[in-house]
Design brief:
Distance between the termini of chain B: 25 Å
Shape of chain B: globular
Number of strands of chain B: 0
CATH class of chain B: Mainly Alpha
CATH topology of the largest domain in chain A: MetI-like fold
Structural class of chain A: mainly alpha
CATH class of the largest domain in chain A: Mainly Alpha
Helix content of chain B: over 70%
Largest interface: A-B, 95 and 100 residues
Order of helices and strands of chain B: HHHHHHHHHHHH
Radius of gyration of chain A: 26 Å
CATH architecture of the largest domain in chain A: Orthogonal Bundle
Helix content of chain A: over 70%
Distance between the termini of chain A: 23 Å
Structural class of chain B: mainly alpha
Oligomer: heterodimer
CATH topology of chain B: MetI-like fold
CATH superfamily of the largest domain in chain A: MetI-like
Strand content of chain A: under 5%
Number of helices of chain B: 12
Number of strands of chain A: 0
Number of domains of chain A: 2
């Protein structure tokens, strides 16, 4: 709420009128203000705080906090584990986003070709999105268990000996990505399908009358009209894959030999296992910058297409 | 759309295969929750057995996970209520008033969806710790502390979802009520809210799912007094021996309300999951 400074107002109008006008002009703050204050306190202040912490050497144990400038950032960028976990995260993003996108898009195209049972199939397909990621991770731990997991039982039926899929570097990385895809391709499916449902029918009908092939209809009509929807799906998947923690934490906890350690996991460990709060803060600010850059670029594309706000 | 039979059969085959791949781990895992301990780890899996509730009894009472259930309920319901109290008026403000910077503010709200939880979780831990050392005022390991932290992802979502519902209503509704002598607040309370009520319920339930499933911030910030169900699930997986039956009992307790809510909410789901960007 805005409090007008009554004494500074020149005469002419009655004070109460002026106060009334001011509150009328700023009445939106009455509605928006409280939420905004809380958001500043729970989002902006922590980020500012973290930036501050990253410039000092702060640990949970010691009370002395010398100023070290950008040293924490330098150390982070020169740290092999940080670079390794950045690489892992990018690997995770690329394969999880592209995998879930292709499966989700495919499912959305297919479900438009059927009518009976469509609702029940859709409902089954969206179950994974609504599950807690930690539950999904724990569940797949059980599926992949080398001794009594369903996957190995099935492989055994095919004559393949039991595999420790989560304990080998070569397969662990693939497994966590596959589980992430399993959980999130339904999100792409849901978004794309909702987008397709809003497409106008006229272009399709005239294209069909002119005998255009299905592939060309898809390329020239469906894809361009779905562009904003596709961008939203890609944006959400990218930021979610980028910050993955829960699934990896319970499935491999970053192992074996850091091959599945994502950035979130690495920063968590830096702060809470190795007690290097400042360095983790510096890393998290770097992470924020990267994700900010990626989403800013995707947003620019998006705003060309749709009106937001 | 007329679809050739060949194409339709192909679509059914793939979609049913996808549905089966979703259902196998979920159903097979959930069955384990009802198995007596001796057949938890039998391979090949036992599909037919006499179901028992002893695993649920064990986790809720012997392991005292009812405390975690209680914490999860307090934190989820509390954080959703606060997000609604702050977010619904804000959404109304954004829907009805154009002012300088309103568009930029809405975009800023979307950008909050992109922030990795570690970026806020880390400073929250340090802030709560330093606050306690400096003033003795404790937000660490309290329900209120977590409820506040959860506003980072709940509040922007509530504002975006509710704004969508308010925009759909004609502004003439409140205006005519205001002509009849209501104040704007009165009109909002008596005329608008009763109409958007279903939207508020949908928003609340969807946000409840997000708070209920949350793991990362709870892992960093919750302690003995506030540890939630997802954290309890993690305790059944210790390197040496995994208590699968107990683990899946907890998993099922986490999943049950969410599955019920999903069935109720399936139409609103897209709106919530895409943050209302698609409208």
């Amino acid at each position: 709420m805005v409090k007008p400074d009554a004494s500074a107002q020149p005469g002419g109008q009655r004070l109460s009128t002026r106060v009334y006008r001011l509150t009328q002009r700023h009445r939106h703050w009455f509605f928006i203000g409280p939420a905004l204050v809380i958001l500043l306190a729970v989002v902006i202040y922590p980020i500012v705080f973290s930036t501050g912490v990253s410039l000092f050497r702060v640990t949970f144990a010691s009370t002395s906090r010398p100023f070290v400038g950008l040293q924490n950032f330098q150390r982070m960028l020169g740290n092999d584990d940080f670079l390794q976990s950045t690489y892992n995260t990018l690997f995770y993003v690329v394969f999880s986003v592209s995998g879930s996108f292709m499966l989700g898009f495919g499912a959305a195209l297919l479900i438009r070709r059927i009518s009976r049972g469509r609702d029940i199939l859709r409902l089954v397909l969206i179950i994974p999105i609504t599950m807690a990621p930690i539950v999904v991770g724990l569940m797949w731990n059980w599926m992949l268990d080398p001794l009594f997991g369903l996957i190995n039982w099935f492989l055994g039926l095919l004559g393949i000996p039991g595999q420790t899929l989560l304990a080998q570097a070569s397969t662990a990385r693939l497994m966590v990505v596959l589980v992430d895809i399993w959980q999130w391709y339904p999100l792409v499916f849901l978004i794309i399908e909702a987008g397709m449902a809003t497409l106008p029918r006229a272009p399709y009908e005239s294209a069909r009358l002119e005998g255009v092939s299905s592939w060309m209809i898809f390329r020239r009509i469906t894809l361009p009209m779905l562009r904003p929807v596709i961008l939203v799906a890609l944006l959400l998947r990218t930021v979610d894959a980028f910050r993955t923690f829960d699934i990896v934490r319970v499935m491999t906890d970053g192992g074996p030999a850091l091959t599945t350690e994502t950035l979130s996991l690495y920063l968590y460990r830096t702060a809470f296992t190795f007690n290097k709060l400042s360095r983790a803060a510096a890393g998290s600010i770097l992470m924020l910058l990267v994700i900010g850059l990626i989403s800013a670029m995707m947003f620019r594309f998006l705003y060309k297409d749709i009106e937001v706000g | 759309m007329i679809v050739p039979a060949r194409e339709r059969i192909f679509a059914y085959a793939i979609l049913i295969a996808m549905a089966v791949l979703v259902l196998i781990p979920v159903v097979a895992g959930s069955l384990t929750a009802f198995k007596p301990q001796i057949i938890w780890i039998s391979s090949p899996p036992v599909w037919f057995f006499e179901p028992t509730l002893e695993n649920f009894e064990f986790v809720l009472i012997t392991r005292q996970n009812w405390l975690h259930l209680r914490n999860s309920l307090i934190i989820s319901i509390g954080s959703v209520l606060i997000a609604l109290v702050l977010g619904v008026p804000a959404a109304y403000g954004f829907a009805r008033f154009r002012f300088r910077g309103s568009k930029g503010l809405m975009q800023w709200l979307i950008s909050l969806r992109m922030i990795p939880p570690i970026v806020v979780g880390l400073p929250f831990y340090a802030m709560f710790l330093f606050l306690e050392r400096a003033t003795g005022l404790g937000l660490r390991d309290t329900h209120l502390g977590l409820i506040l932290t959860y506003q980072t992802f709940l509040l922007p979502l509530v504002i975006w979802m509710m704004r969508g519902y308010f925009v759909e209503l004609p502004a003439a509704m409140e205006e005519s009520a205001m002509v009849e002598g209501y104040t704007r607040i009165g009109a909002l309370w008596r005329v608008v809210l009763p109409v958007v009520w279903p939207g508020i319920v949908a928003t609340a339930l969807l946000n409840f799912i997000f708070a209920w499933n949350e793991f990362f911030l709870a892992l960093i910030l919750a302690g003995n007094n506030t540890s939630t169900l997802p954290m309890a699930a993690g305790t059944y997986i210790v390197r040496a021996r995994v208590e699968w039956g107990n683990l899946f009992a907890v998993n099922l307790i986490i999943m049950m309300p969410v599955i019920v809510l999903t069935i109720i909410l399936r139409r609103q789901l897209v709106k919530g999951l895409t943050f209302g960007i698609l409208e």
